[in-house]
Queue: 4 jobs
Job 1
Amino acid sequence: MSAAAPARRELDNLLTRLTALHPKRIDLDLSRIQRILAALDHPERRLPPVIHVAGTNGKGSTVAFLRAICEAAGLRVHVYTSPHLVRINERFRIAGVLATDAQLEDAFAQCERANGGAPITLFEIETAAAFVLFSQHIADLLLLEVGLGGRLDATNVVDEPLASVITPIGMDHPEFLGDTLIKIAGEKAGIIKRGVPVISAEQQAEAQAVIEQTARKMRAPLLSATQEWHVGVEHGRLVYHDERGLLDLAAPRLFGRHQFDNAGLAIATLRAIASLTIEPAAFEQGIARAEWPARMQRLPSGALFAHAPEGCELWLDGGHNADGGRVTAAALADLGERIERPVVLIVGMMANKDARAFLANFSGLTRHVVAVPIPENDNAMEPEELAAVARAQEMRADVAPGVAEALSFIASMAYETPPRILITGSLYLAGHVLAENGTLPT
């Protein structure tokens, strides 16, 4: 047994106890997080300067670009993101390094004692633990990603962030955020603070109007994509410009046209913060180095290749809503223009997602879907139901009991050209794929 095993075991036991403290996985309300933070003597008031990030799609990638640029500039950066893919440690990055099991066990134990058995959701106590950890370690910045929504999210207890960032807003989690884009945008815009700069990605008109209205109400300077700043692709390079001038940078390492937009949002954010001075070289290095797992991530090797067709390409993306499917499909189309291969999707989705709207994005790219379950998840969509949705869109749809079996089935079809296989539909599925393949996020 390794020396780390006892700490991991105690951490797992702690998380099991904490999960049982609230009957719901999600219950948007600030009273419980405010109570536990007060019992912990307000670690949220002792944090490094915060950049707060909300939105529907692209939050994680934008945070990855922010982190990579800042670290290239020599800054120490804490990061809090969700959900994790394989290990909970992925959510907590302390000055550039994932939190250890022992550090997490200690922080969660402090929170458990302070909470005293009162009802609290797991995400709320995770957020409290993050604030405990980050308040105990010196850094120049904290990149704080919203878990769900914004207005009532547990992260929305920081009164004076350096900047509020809003990535593209779309229809997702209507059962919690509202059944219209306007309602969802109102929840996301709830992170806007009085007088604090707001940097927004390009938005649909309804969402943009909500953001503008909220920013005016809070007297918060608003810098919106295509208005105060612009990002584009020229000769394969990222070209960004605003009132301060132009940056001609290397293309992002993260694949897909949408990653140019996410990188532009990160650049606009850092240039909007008066207290930061980032040189062009740091922007160049950060954009080229940034990594974020399960976002059009190519898997070059691993255990799953024992089942896959010889010579195939294997890609992984955690997209799970209509807008996420759109940008992933666009990235697949770009790949097809470079090197054409038959495309096959392996898809697993949660039951509360709009599978029809997600899969519609791929109807012109593939005619073959293999539906799989999401392991250890009672809220996953049944593969047979998912396959029926695909068939209704005139795609061939088969069902497999897991990703390895799906790959074996695709291999049995003996494509003339080795296929390009995309595993997609859920971050929960992506996490299982990374674990099964032996590709652990670091």
Job 2
Amino acid sequence: MPDLYLTISDQPDTMLDAIATSMDARANDPAMRDICARYMGALPHGAEFLEIGCGNGASTELLLEAAGPAKVTAVDPSPGLLARARQRFAHRDGVNFVPGDAVATGQADAGFDVVVAHTVYSHLDAPEAALAEAFRVLRPGGTLAIFDGDYATNTVALFDRDPLQAVMQAAQRNLIHDPYIMRRLPRLLADAGFEGLRSTAHGFVQTDRPDYIESLMARSVDAAERAGECGGELASGFKAETALRVANGTFYGAILFISAIALKPALTEA
């Protein structure tokens, strides 16, 4: 089954509700808030930002808190998620949510100081085109920040061949288009003309209150069942085992995230 984010604009409200809930759970986790404060806080303050794949606006809130942008234009291909984002920011100025995606933002050339893509590139089937678009809309000397998971390392295993790890493998098949994108990104950035790459690893672990990873696992199991990879009884069993581990204090889930910050070269005099 292909990554459902590749067809996010076609997803029903029930699916968008589940995705939005997961986005909120991840953004509200204290460890994730600390991670975002570090990498977003390193971006130029008081600048004009373009956020790619804003979803329901959960990541936009973190960006506003950490980077203090003068103005944010946020794009997403999903009308349903954009509606949720607009509702979230109904009483706030300086943020504009518009249709667009990573390869076709609909924005003018050299219009932004900073482009941010928060957990977007792992869902793209054309990262080269997305990097070219980011390069186009950035001003000379502008900053590109890409934050995503090294999702091939995701784990919930407590022992060798733990059957619950199959749920993370289902996530890689059904919810993530490219679990290795952050490993390939340095070469792709260089080929796209970016320079000065700064990559930082951010370990993310949830144990006693794993709201985000538990929601990710539930969506993974549902996707696996829809794809015919398992039956309803096994799907229910995976969810029950996850809930049992959370209840008895043995749950462990870990994801390695990477922030990659690079620059569009500044104009130089001939």
Job 3
Amino acid sequence: MLCYQNAGVVLFFIAGIGVVIGEISISTKEVLVQTNDVTKISVTVRNASTLGVQISLNAQHEDIVSVLPTTLFLQPFNETYELVVRGRTAGHSEVSAISNDTSIVLSDIYLITNVCNSYVVDILSKIAGWIYIISWGSSFYPQIYSNYKRKSVVGLNFDYVGFNLIGYVSFGIFISGLYFVPYLQQEYFALYPRGLIPVKTNDVVYNFHGTFAVLLTIFQCCIYERARQTVSNIAKVLMGILALFYIVCGILIATGALKWLSFLYYCSYLKLIITLLKYIPQAYMNYKRKSTSGWSIGLVLLDLTGGLLSVVQMILDAYNYNDWLSIFGNPTKFGLGLFNIFIHSFFITQHYVLYRERPLEPAPKTWV
């Protein structure tokens, strides 16, 4: 049984081969193998013109994966070679290539394998991933529809909306830079020569969609009844600090003191900070008004579903690849998922327990 996914990637690149190898191709560039299972890859070499050349394949972690044969004896002209990849224990392993001909550079020819404990768990992880992406992507619309139906944005905190926009724009800079700009991709590969660009097409689509939805919500805030609501002074100060951050980074980039790639990562860190910050004004306003009227519970439920399943997916992947460091070694993402669950559970408590069926109170001007 074979299973393929984006997480398991096989990459072969050619560099410095000269006249020995004219072209090399493989049957697939993506592979995932279960423990105690095998998958086969066909490697075709065309226009080889030198006899006696050998390419040896060395697994970084032989307890995780093995590749047979371990040595390819290149034949003149065209030849197809079959590699058998066997999963031994769950994890990730790189297979590097060296040649007995020192004039051949094979530093860019390598194989990355992901070995999972179970194909079933892998499928469950994919399902969880799709559901949480759909949940987060659709979470904007209950609030947008509620605003439209009431022709009012009273009860929706403007600080939350403003921080949300800054968060999506900041993360959009990170995503768009790495996805669309070749120069920044070169910077990334210079830093991580055997890495993969950590941005996919779905990331780009998700962020553009989220930015559009937030802008639509801001448009509603401009045209619908909003009573005394406005952006708080504290939020204005924080937004001013964020604007100053971008100005300082622009100056540092212009003077060569800051690399573009570093700036992109600063933008992604800023998105994490804003995610922790943006819900606090809304929760406080609900408390001051003793009401959740105007704050869509549909948004909360969909966001909570997304947060829960994102954490579930992380746990499933950690088990399936024996990679618990992906959680405990990088607590930021896991911590954000737990915070998402906590804050939306708090909103649910406000809506269904603390302020259930309370009449709508005038919205305060600020959250402090």
Job 4
Amino acid sequence: MSQDAVELTRGLLTEDAALRHGFLDVLGESTASPAPTVAQRAMNSPLVATVYERLWRPAAFYVASGVTTGAEQRRAASALRLCTAGLLLDVACGPGNFTASLAEQLPGGGLAVGFDISEPMLTRAVLDNHTPRTAYVRGDARALPFADATFDAVCCFGALYLMPEPFRVAREMLRVLKPGGRVAVLTSYVPDLPPIRHAMTAGARLIGLTMFDRHSFVDLFASAGLVDIEQQTQRALQFVAAAKPGRGA
């Protein structure tokens, strides 16, 4: 991770941050989160952080959606219109596999900021996915340490269903998005059919996952005044993208 990217990111923060293991940390020793579920503990495991990018995520998400990682990244870059974005925030970035890939799609001088609460994941991101156009921050996504309307694009791929307050996180993502900016999320999806919905929801609850229906994020984005809302559902996952009205929308 380049020093220029670190200092530019530090300038975006609304809280003091220490540089630890190559990432900026606004939390220090405190996680400021409830006792983790089984799924959350996995995301904080150094072993999972090591295998997540190359093994766990590609296999699990292909089974869940039938979409390859490469196709996911291309869809994300297109939906977020990264070719015209200067600043990207990747919430719950994990080991930075999407952060670094999406950073390559930004125009010259662009910066992708990966944000996560897991120290092992961010340590892995710095080791495996640092580029001159990426920087990583540790913090709590329920209170993003950035001013309103900071980023041209904001995304969260494969993590909202792990979080204790996913809609609060989504609203924070919209708060830091500039007018005219784009937001995209990839999260869980459960069909409307009652038997399937009950079975999938019960199974997910056992390991601490939340299953969202087709209306959850579409309605949230619409109620926040977003436009150009698009949704794709594939098996157990959904991709939802939208634009914040304003200049360039």
